[in-house]
Amino acid sequence: MRDSHTDVRDRVACWPSAGGVWIKHAELVDLDFLGLSGWGHEPRQLPINQTEEDALCKRLQLVGAQWWGLPTACEQRDHLGKDQFACVTLETSIEPDVKKDYLIAWTENERVACFVPIAEAEQQGEERMNMFYNAPTMEDRCHAIRGLGGVVMSAQS
User: Fold this and answer.
1) Phi, psi of 21 (to 5 degrees)
2) Which of 25, 28, 46 is nearest to 36 (CA)?
3) Share of the chain above pLDDT 90, in %
4) Chain centroid offset of residue 14 CA
5) What is the rounded distance in angstroms from the CA atom of residue 147 to the CA atom of residue 96?
6) What is the rounded CA–CA span in Å between residue 47 and residue 144?
7) Tens digit of pLDDT for each residue in 90-111?
8) What residue ranges do the domains of the chain occupy?
9) Is the per-residue pLDDT at 32 higher than 80?
10) What is the CA radius of gyration of the chain?
11) In three state form, how does the secondary structure of the chain look?
């Protein structure tokens, strides 16, 4: 499933040619950035066009997706004890191999990135964090990140 709904956000996944899976629990502004609809499930297209899949994976990384190398066996879940087979999703049962600890946004032309460490942003309080999560556009997200003490960085030409 490419895109499925959870209680608050959509779960978006892609499978790069290098292996593993990138997953992001995305808000509407992320879906818009990714070119996905927020109005229903969007199944993974079969047969897979790996070039398109890799391109989506790169864009998904730009909005803070996390990556799992997909273990071949369940031994990595032994630490969960009796709950090791009760997991609902990969991300609730195994820590990601690549974890994004930043809130990230991009300007519309994707030439300016805005980011702030999540731990630092959370210290600013729930009201300011809500400005980030409720931002209707990436530009508004950048503004919210600046308000959370974040950094704005221009891409080199």
Assistant:
1) -150, 135
2) 28
3) 48
4) 11
5) 29
6) 40
7) 666 677 888 889 999 998 777 8
8) 3-93, 102-154
9) yes
10) 17
11) CCEEECCCCEEEEECCCCCCEEEEEECHHHHHHHCCCCCCCECCCCCCCHHHHHHHHHHHHHCCCEEECCCCCHHHHHHHHHHCCCCCCHHHHCCCCECCCEEEEECCCCCEEEEEEHHHHHCCCHHHHHHHHCCCCHHHHHHHHHHCCCEEEECCC
- Does residue 127 surpass a pLDDT of 60? yes
Q: State both tokens at 15.
A: 């499978």
CB-based contact 148:103 (threshold 8 Å) = yes
Q: Are strands 151-154 and 3-5 parallel, antiparallel or unpaired?
A: unpaired
Taking Cα atoms as reference points, which of 20, 21, 75, 141 lies closest to residue 11?
21
| Half-sphere CA count of 42, side-chain side, radius 13 A | 14
Do the strands 112-117 and 102-106 form a parallel or antiparallel pair, or are they unpaired?
antiparallel
The answer to whether the beta carbons of residues 27 and 33 sit under 8 Å apart is no
How much is the pLDDT for 76?
Answer: 57
Instruction: With a cut of 90, say whether residue 124 has pLDDT above it.
Output: yes
Rounded to two decimals, the pTM is 0.73
Strand order in the sheet with 102-106: 102-106, 112-117, 151-154
How far is 93 from 49, CA to CA, in rounded Å?
29
